[in-house]
Amino acid sequence: MARKKANIIVMVNDNSIDKALKQFKKKIEREGVQRDQKRTVYFEPPTQKRRKRLMRAKKQNAIRIASQRV
Asked: Has residue 33 been placed in a domain?
């Protein structure tokens, strides 16, 4: 399974390192870098992967149905 590389760039202006760090953390979260890293660090059996995928699909389906009702 090929994984895409995340090229995350954050521009640092003057002395705003705190702001740049906050932007960096948000970009990492959006790209899913941490989530992918956790998957590679811990072994997850195929049955567990399928179960997680099924639970995620059920949750997304419930959200989709709820948004259509409103």
From this structure: yes
